[in-house]
Write a structure and sequence with these properties.
The complex is a heterodimer.
Chain A (H helix, E strand, L loop, with lengths): L17 H6 L4 H11 L5 H10 L2 H4 L4 H4 L9 E3 L6 E4 L4 E9 L1 H6 L1 H17 L4 E11 L5 H21 L3 E8 L8 E11 L14 E6 L9 H4 L20 H17 L4 E4 L4 H13 L2 E5 L12 H6 L5 E6 L4 H10 L4 E8 L3 E6 L2 E7 H6 L12 H6 L11 H10 L7 H4 L10 E3 L6 E4 L6 E7 L2 H6 L1 H18 L3 E10 L6 H21 L3 E7 L3 E2 L2 E2 L3 E10 L16 E5 L10 H6 L12 H16 L3 E6 L4 H11 L8 E6 L9 H6 L6 E5 L4 H10 L4 E10 L2 E6 L2 E6 H16 L10
Parallel strand pairs in A: 4-5, 9-12, 17-18, 24-27
Antiparallel strand pairs in A: 1-2, 2-3, 3-6, 4-6, 7-10, 7-11, 8-10, 9-11, 12-13, 14-15, 15-16, 16-21, 17-21, 19-20, 22-25, 22-26, 23-25, 24-26, 27-28
Chain B lengths: L3 E6 L6 H10 L3 E6 L10 E4 L20 H10 L3 E5 L1 H8 L6 E3 L7 E9 L15 E8 L3 E3 L2 H9 L3 E5 L18 E5 L5 E4 L17 H16 L1
Parallel strand pairs in B: 1-2, 1-3, 3-4, 4-11
Antiparallel strand pairs in B: 5-8, 6-7, 6-9, 9-10, 10-11
The chains are: A alpha+beta, B alpha/beta.
């Protein structure tokens, strides 16, 4: 073999043996490819660099061909996948940048820091585009709260998410929390950030200009988080606890300064490119920026400011210390950049340069310790097309039916509202600042958060959604359903869905049954996105979410943003006036397969989940958007887990901090006569929403719905504050005191969390 | 000539933009003042905004009190000038000795973000003249360290001298605890004996624009501008 470019071992580093290669999670095929690429044995530093960039987390080696099927284009797309965040066009020269990312593995072993740095990382992804972060959302999934370990993880994760976003001054505008035994020991922490920018301020992460300077900005580099990207690319085991020192430690105060400095650098026009140092730190940021620009880079790790002496180039290249950015600039701008950073009390240090030979080169004290062809380093990882086949067990699940007898339906609704997945998340939202920046028009606790774009009349609606049980039972329908639910939530506020970011959380892709879930869920997501004109602008894949007890339910979390033209017409979720008419938009079909009713009350996770009718979903969205724009709606709430009964209950119960609840009086008799009461109340087919409006607007709303081919059933009236939720069907009357429902709904999580006082790391 | 109100930005402040906007909506000229400034740049009043100055790493406000600008703020207060601290600004004012007492970690040991109902207890301070004593407004709090404490004598003196400006109260139907942090005597905000320095935990600047559904906090800023206007023209 002839070396392509020479590099030598850093003094004292271990020789690269078979054992060392295995330790770096590179298989034989991959290692052979590395040797062929280099024409020699890699140095340890090079091996570390390859192990990071060729990890599943960075290379998408099992998933890229599937992800290529997502629709990514549309007139609203300013920036699709491939940059740090997607960007969609808003009116008047404004744009919205947004992205979702997982921090599952770190949060499983160190919940507070794992979750906090997940928020920090996603915020950097957004402000590195030149956007000011204006909101965060998150999707959290945990094991049941009767297990103290899950309570510990839940409390730590929520505090970590809150402390970081709160200190940064970015409101949390929405999110979801759900609980299932499949997440015990393998919690999911998916954080989404949303930023606003002038389209002309869009920054890129494309290095160019031979001789330009690379600078690190922000925190110095420590030994934390080394090999985080590789850790995120393996199963969780009993050994994972040893990974705890690999979890990064967050400093939101420094990040706040970094945010201000980065935005000032971008708008000053003094820089060529900027990228945050996320997974695989300096390695991925520099290699990816160089590859995008088709140039080489040379980094001198001895120039990188470190937190402790004696750090090796290997450690410096692979550290995932937080709150760092890599900037490319022309040499004559360096002093100006340093002056801007000093204003924000941050260091900006030249650590390398752009070269013309396409080589990714690392030198340390004058010695070349890594020299790798740059394009192949980023794009040369062998790709895999693993077999995908549904397991017999999965097929069987679809034909399961409950064996347990149905209890009294009064009790069913109470049990559902008390189920932590459906219960009020007030305990969670209270720990997140939701009003800082004074732009929040609709707060967490409804269908979607809505935020005003400062200085304008329009707003951005945002949500994260996934019904993982539906995906488990039928990945294709479940994938479609996740996008449809997100779009319903956006449309309920009156906003038009614009695009999505996805966080695809699955188990080990080398298991055919798991990969089948992945392929099918993605097929469903792609179809729904095409039907709704909501392109995929980027996202994140998190695989190996499994522990010795098995894999998580497939959880493709959909983060969606939408546009509402007039913020003052944004529609809340809950009933607002006694005497308003209550209507059901969409067709009741009584679909109980995969329902929360079966799962939470009858202990049966089974049956086929409801098939998703994309045309009906689109018609419902258009109806909701048009009705809101005409000012017809007093409230709108989508039907999802728990069906009509839970949705009506939530409309009566009111928002997390409401001082008034409302009763309702609803008659189900006239429609869908063939359905049983339990089907009517708890069926979970999509494309439906409960809305309320002033009685004089009923006819107009019905005409509007008909013009979109959406049935609009008159159900009844909003009743007196603090009254009963009454549902009549033929001769039967179901009645629940709403104050009692509200108490159940609000207390479900605090009651379970009060079982212990958990000691949480961090302040 | 409209009054000038300086809003100080410390490293880690994060409410300065909306505080400036609220001041300007009320009719004053807002000026963003860097924490390294050594004068108030001719401002008639100083607002210390919310946020996490210096990361709140030692204790909220404990480092910010040493910021260079605080000498000028203190001199302004000593001379009878108006100083208002909101949330982190209230914490800084207490740490700097401009107001008595301290703000400690919330009793429930968790950050708390939610609307609270506060009753206006004084309608003659520099930022409450557009209220009537007994008015209850619903505005947000968002803090981890908002539990007001002072020794019993100080609390008695605050009550006796009528220096409590805002108090958390229970509205009918509210099912969250009315006192969000365990503050002594439900105190949400206080003023000094001279009445020119006021601090409180809730965030009126976050609900000062009717576009967001309520402008319950707007009157705090119009009261301030009234007061400054009277002083400027006098």
């Amino acid at each position: 073999m002839t070396a392509v470019v020479h590099a030598e071992a850093f003094p004292g580093e271990r020789p690269v043996t078979d054992a060392v290669v295995r330790e770096h999670k590179l298989n034989e095929l991959e290692y052979t490819a590395i040797e062929r690429l280099l024409g020699r044995t890699p140095t340890l530093t090079e091996l570390g660099i390859f192990s990071a960039l060729w990890s599943e987390h960075c290379s998408y080696k099992h998933t890229k061909p599937v992800l290529r099927r997502f629709p990514t284009e549309g007139p609203q797309v300013v920036q699709g996948p491939g940059e740090n965040a997607g960007v969609l066009r808003l009116p008047d020269g404004w744009a919205v940048a947004f992205k979702i990312e997982s921090h599952n593995h770190p949060s499983a072993v160190e919940p507070y820091q794992g979750a906090a740095t997940g928020v920090g990382g996603i915020l950097r992804d957004v402000f590195t585009m030149g956007a000011r972060p204006v909101a965060v959302l998150n999707s959290l999934r945990l094991g049941p709260l009767d297990d103290p370990r899950n309570r510990y993880l839940f409390a730590g994760i929520v505090k970590g998410v809150g402390d970081y976003g709160n200190c940064m001054g970015v409101p949390t505008l929405g999110g979801e929390v759900s609980f299932s035994s499949c997440y015990s020991g393998n919690p999911l922490v998916n954080a989404m950030a949303v930023g606003i920018l002038r389209e002309t301020d869009l920054a890129t992460a494309r290095a160019h200009g031979v001789g330009n300077v690379l600078l690190t900005v922000g925190a110095s580099t420590g030994r934390d988080g080394i090999h985080g990207a590789s850790f995120a690319s393996e199963d969780l085991t009993a050994e994972s606890e040893k990974r705890r020192p690999q979890v990064q430690v967050g400093d939101p105060f420094t990040e706040k300064l970094l945010l201000e400095a980065s935005l000032e650098l971008i708008t000053s026009g003094q820089i060529v490119a900027i990228q945050d140092m996320g997974a695989a730190g300096l390695t991925s940021s520099s290699a990816e920026m160089a590859a995008r620009g088709g140039v080489g880079v040379e980094l001198d790790t001895s120039l990188v400011p470190t937190r402790e002496p004696g750090m090796t180039p290997y450690e410096i290249m692979l550290s995932e210390s937080q709150e760092r950015m890599l900037v490319v600039a022309e040499p004559h701008q360096v002093e100006r950049i340093q002056a801007i950073c000093r204003k924000w009390e941050l260091d900006a240090t030249p650590v390398g340069r752009v070269t013309d030979d396409g080589i990714f080169r690392v030198i340390h004290d004058g010695r070349t310790v890594a020299a790798i062809p740059g394009a192949e380093l980023v794009d040369g990882c062998p790709m895999y097309a693993p077999p995908a086949e549904e397991s017999p067990k999965a097929r069987q699940r679809r034909s399961l039916v409950p064996v347990k007898a149905a209890p009294d339906l009064h009790l069913v609704l109470e049990q559902l509202l008390d189920a932590p997945t459906i219960a009020s998340k007030r305990w969670v939202f209270e720990q997140y600042d939701s009003t800082v920046r004074a732009g929040s028009a609709i707060l967490p606790g409804g269908d979607a958060g809505v935020l005003r774009v400062p200085g304008t009349r329009f707003g951005v609606a945002m949500t994260v959604d996934c019904n993982a049980r539906h995906v488990l039972l039928d990945p294709y329908e479940g994938g479609k359903g996740a996008v449809a639910e997100a779009a319903r939530n956006i449309a309920c506020t009156g906003a038009r869905p614009l695009g999505i970011t996805d966080c695809l959380n699955f188990g080990n892709p080398q298991v055919p049954a798991i990969f089948h879930q992945f392929v099918e869920a993605c097929r469903g997501i792609a179809e729904a996105c095409i039907a709704f004109d909501t392109p995929v602008t980027g996202g994140n894949v998190s695989l190996y979410n499994q522990n010795p007890d098995g894999a998580i339910d497939p959880t493709p979390t959909i983060g969606m943003v939408g546009l509402i033209d007039n913020i003052t017409l944004a529609v809340p979720s809950h009933f607002r006036h006694e005497g308003d008419a209550i209507l059901l938009l969409g067709t009741p079909k009584g679909h109980l397969g995969g329902s929360a009713y079966w799962a939470e009350v009858l202990d049966c996770v089974g049956g086929p989940p409801p098939p998703v009718d994309l045309a009906a979903e689109r018609g419902l969205q258009e109806t909701l958007i048009a009705a809101a724009a005409s000012g017809l709606l007093m409230s709108a709430h989508d039907l999802s887990e728990g069906g009509l009964a839970v949705a009506l209950g939530e409309c009566c119960i009111g928002g997390p901090w409401a001082t008034t609840t409302f009763g309702c009086d609803v008659e189900l008799g006239q429609h869908a006569d063939q359905l049983t009461d339990e089907q009517w109340l708890f069926g979970e087919e999509g494309a439906r929403a409960v809305v309320s409006c002033s009685p004089q607007h009923v006819a107009e709303l019905q005409r509007l719905a008909a013009s979109h081919a959406i049935p609009c059933h008159y159900l009844g009236l909003v009743a007196a504050p603090d009254g009963e939720m009454r549902v009549r069907r033929r001769e039967r009357v179901y009645a629940w005191p709403v104050r009692r429902l509200r108490k159940l709904h609000l207390d479900a999580i605090p009651r379970r969390m009060a079982a212990d006082t958990t000691v949480i790391a961090g302040s | 000539m409209s009054a000038r109100v300086a809003v100080v930005r410390f490293p880690g402040s994060n409410c300065e933009d909306e505080t400036l906007a609220a001041v300007e909506r009320a009719g004053a000229a807002g000026v963003l003042l860097d924490y390294r400034a050594t004068s108030l740049d001719g401002a008639d009043a100083v607002l210390l905004p919310g946020g996490f100055s210096y990361g709140d790493y030692l204790r909220s406000g404990a480092i910010a009190r040493f910021a260079p600008v605080m000498d000028a703020v203190r001199a302004h207060a000593d001379a009878g000038g108006v100083v208002i601290g909101i949330c982190n600004g209230f914490q800084i004012a207490c740490e700097a000795g401009l107001l008595p007492g301290a703000l400690l970690r919330n009793a429930q040991q968790r950050f708390t973000s939610r609307p609270v109902d506060v009753r206006i207890e004084r309608a003659d301070t520099v930022c409450t003249t557009r209220f009537t004593v007994g008015d209850v407004i619903r505005i947000p709090v968002a803090h981890g360290e908002g539990r007001y404490v002072a020794d019993a004598d100080t609390l008695d003196r605050l009550e006796g001298d009528g220096l409590v400006v805002m108090r958390y109260v229970q509205e009918d139907g509210a099912d969250a605890p009315h006192n969000p942090n365990g503050s002594a005597r439900d105190i949400a905000g206080i003023c000094n004996a001279a009445g020119n320095v006021v601090g409180f935990m809730p965030h009126p600047e976050r609900l000062a624009d009717a576009v967001l559904g309520s402008d319950a906090g707007h009157r705090i800023f119009t009261s301030l501008v009234d007061r400054l206007g009277a002083a400027v023209s006098a």
